[in-house]
Amino acid sequence: MERTTGLGVDQILELEVVLSNAQHVRVFPSEWETVDGMLNPQTTGVTALCNANVVADEDEWEWIPCEDLPVAPEDLWKALRGGGGGTYAVVISVKYQAFEMENKLELIAGGMGFV
Q: Residues 50-80, buried b or exposed e (16+ Cβ, 10 A)?
Protein backbone atom coordinates (compact mmCIF):
# COMPACT_ATOMS: atom_id res chain seq x y z
CA MET A 1 0.00 0.00 0.00
CA GLU A 2 1.21 3.50 -0.76
CA ARG A 3 0.03 7.07 -0.88
CA THR A 4 -0.61 7.73 -4.53
CA THR A 5 -0.30 11.52 -4.33
CA GLY A 6 1.94 12.07 -1.29
CA LEU A 7 1.06 13.60 2.06
CA GLY A 8 -1.67 16.20 2.43
CA VAL A 9 0.90 18.83 3.42
CA ASP A 10 2.69 18.18 0.09
CA GLN A 11 -0.44 19.26 -1.79
CA ILE A 12 -0.74 22.76 -0.31
CA LEU A 13 -0.58 25.43 -3.02
CA GLU A 14 -1.17 28.53 -0.88
CA LEU A 15 -1.72 29.50 2.75
CA GLU A 16 -3.54 32.64 3.83
CA VAL A 17 -2.64 33.65 7.38
CA VAL A 18 -2.76 36.40 9.95
CA LEU A 19 0.62 36.84 11.63
CA SER A 20 1.10 37.60 15.31
CA ASN A 21 1.73 41.27 14.37
CA ALA A 22 -1.73 41.36 12.64
CA GLN A 23 -0.38 41.30 9.06
CA HIS A 24 -2.71 39.51 6.62
CA VAL A 25 -0.46 37.44 4.33
CA ARG A 26 -0.65 34.92 1.49
CA VAL A 27 2.40 32.67 1.13
CA PHE A 28 2.99 30.23 -1.72
CA PRO A 29 5.79 28.52 -3.66
CA SER A 30 6.96 30.52 -6.66
CA GLU A 31 9.89 28.36 -7.77
CA TRP A 32 10.34 24.59 -7.66
CA GLU A 33 12.28 21.76 -9.24
CA THR A 34 11.63 18.13 -10.00
CA VAL A 35 13.92 15.79 -8.08
CA ASP A 36 14.46 12.17 -9.09
CA GLY A 37 12.93 9.81 -6.56
CA MET A 38 10.55 12.42 -5.12
CA LEU A 39 6.81 12.22 -5.78
CA ASN A 40 6.20 15.99 -5.70
CA PRO A 41 8.24 18.95 -7.00
CA GLN A 42 10.52 20.46 -4.35
CA THR A 43 10.01 24.13 -3.45
CA THR A 44 13.07 26.28 -4.07
CA GLY A 45 11.48 29.74 -3.76
CA VAL A 46 8.56 31.21 -1.85
CA THR A 47 6.61 34.45 -2.34
CA ALA A 48 4.59 36.35 0.26
CA LEU A 49 1.91 38.92 -0.54
CA CYS A 50 0.46 41.26 2.08
CA ASN A 51 -3.05 42.66 2.13
CA ALA A 52 -2.63 46.45 1.91
CA ASN A 53 -6.36 47.12 2.32
CA VAL A 54 -7.76 45.06 5.19
CA VAL A 55 -11.52 45.55 4.97
CA ALA A 56 -14.49 43.20 5.28
CA ASP A 57 -15.21 43.08 1.53
CA GLU A 58 -12.69 40.65 -0.03
CA ASP A 59 -13.23 42.25 -3.46
CA GLU A 60 -11.49 45.35 -2.11
CA TRP A 61 -8.40 43.58 -0.78
CA GLU A 62 -5.15 44.70 -2.39
CA TRP A 63 -2.37 42.09 -2.46
CA ILE A 64 1.12 43.58 -2.76
CA PRO A 65 4.61 42.12 -2.23
CA CYS A 66 5.45 42.06 1.49
CA GLU A 67 8.33 44.32 2.46
CA ASP A 68 8.36 44.21 6.24
CA LEU A 69 7.62 40.63 7.30
CA PRO A 70 9.07 39.67 10.69
CA VAL A 71 10.09 36.30 9.18
CA ALA A 72 11.38 35.27 5.74
CA PRO A 73 8.67 33.88 3.42
CA GLU A 74 10.64 30.60 3.08
CA ASP A 75 10.75 30.17 6.88
CA LEU A 76 7.05 30.98 7.20
CA TRP A 77 6.16 28.45 4.47
CA LYS A 78 8.21 25.72 6.17
CA ALA A 79 6.87 26.49 9.65
CA LEU A 80 3.23 26.54 8.59
CA ARG A 81 3.57 23.21 6.78
CA GLY A 82 4.78 21.35 9.84
CA GLY A 83 7.82 23.03 11.32
CA GLY A 84 6.18 24.79 14.27
CA GLY A 85 3.66 27.15 12.70
CA GLY A 86 1.54 27.62 15.82
CA THR A 87 3.72 30.48 17.02
CA TYR A 88 3.88 32.28 13.68
CA ALA A 89 0.32 32.74 12.47
CA VAL A 90 -3.32 31.72 12.41
CA VAL A 91 -4.20 29.96 9.15
CA ILE A 92 -7.45 31.28 7.74
CA SER A 93 -7.41 29.67 4.28
CA VAL A 94 -5.64 26.80 2.50
CA LYS A 95 -5.60 26.02 -1.22
CA TYR A 96 -4.90 22.36 -2.03
CA GLN A 97 -3.94 20.56 -5.22
CA ALA A 98 -6.77 18.20 -6.16
CA PHE A 99 -6.40 14.96 -8.10
CA GLU A 100 -8.87 13.03 -10.19
CA MET A 101 -8.64 9.34 -9.34
CA GLU A 102 -10.60 6.86 -11.41
CA ASN A 103 -12.07 3.80 -9.70
CA LYS A 104 -10.14 4.42 -6.48
CA LEU A 105 -11.14 5.41 -2.99
CA GLU A 106 -8.36 6.67 -0.78
CA LEU A 107 -8.98 6.53 2.94
CA ILE A 108 -6.67 8.21 5.39
CA ALA A 109 -6.91 6.63 8.81
CA GLY A 110 -4.53 6.73 11.72
CA GLY A 111 -1.85 8.46 9.66
CA MET A 112 -1.76 5.69 7.03
CA GLY A 113 -3.12 5.87 3.51
CA PHE A 114 -5.02 2.97 1.97
CA VAL A 115 -5.91 2.68 -1.72
A: bbeeeeeeeeeeeeeebeebebebbebbbbb
